[in-house]
């Protein structure tokens, strides 16, 4: 079963964020708190959305998808999938596919033109899963990111700072 997250899900989402960070070999990178999640997910104008996957047989939370709206000057409105995670002992039961299908359904229903995400190059199981549902890698695009000191340095160099 796939359903929108509720405030009661925040501790479980946070636990899975930490599990995902462990899997991606970056546990010390998680700086988000439960309060950060609540503030972003459950305000009047949410900046991020989450869906939960629950196992029909056990009712156990199997995974989550955390996403936000983006905009392409070429394609218009879309969804960027920040995280999709299914707990290891629950994989292979269709929870990840169901989460992606729900986001695809939202795109179709709202007229969004794309659903997009990033995956670590070494994560072969995820890459295999994504290609199996029809996703294609964007070989010609490279992701860039500013964080920490480079972000502060550039931000303090901006006019008006």
From TrEMBL:
The keyword Ion transport does not apply. Keywords: Acyltransferase, Transferase. It comes from the Bacteria. Pfam families: Acetyltransf_1. Residues 1-156 form the N-acetyltransferase domain. SUPFAM superfamilies: Acyl-CoA N-acyltransferases (Nat) (SSF55729). The keyword Transferase applies. Belongs to the acetyltransferase family. This is L-amino acid N-acyltransferase YncA. It comes from Thermostaphylospora chromogena.
């Amino acid at each position: 079963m796939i359903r929108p997250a509720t405030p009661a899900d925040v501790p479980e989402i946070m636990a899975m964020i930490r599990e995902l960070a462990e899997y991606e070999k970056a546990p010390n990178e998680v700086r988000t708190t439960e309060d950060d999640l609540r503030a972003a997910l459950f305000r009047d104008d949410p900046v991020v959305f989450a869906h939960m996957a629950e196992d029909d047989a056990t009712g156990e939370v199997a995974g989550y998808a955390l996403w936000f709206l983006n905009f392409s000057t070429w394609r218009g409105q879309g969804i960027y999938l920040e995280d999709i995670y299914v707990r290891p002992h629950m994989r292979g039961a269709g929870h990840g596919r169901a989460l992606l299908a729900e986001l695809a359904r939202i795109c179709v229903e709202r007229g969004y033109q794309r659903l997009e995400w990033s995956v670590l190059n070494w994560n072969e199981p995820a890459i295999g899963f994504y290609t199996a549902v029809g996703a294609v890698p964007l070989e010609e695009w490279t992701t860039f990111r500013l964080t920490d000191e480079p972000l502060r340095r550039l931000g303090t160099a901006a006019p008006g700072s």
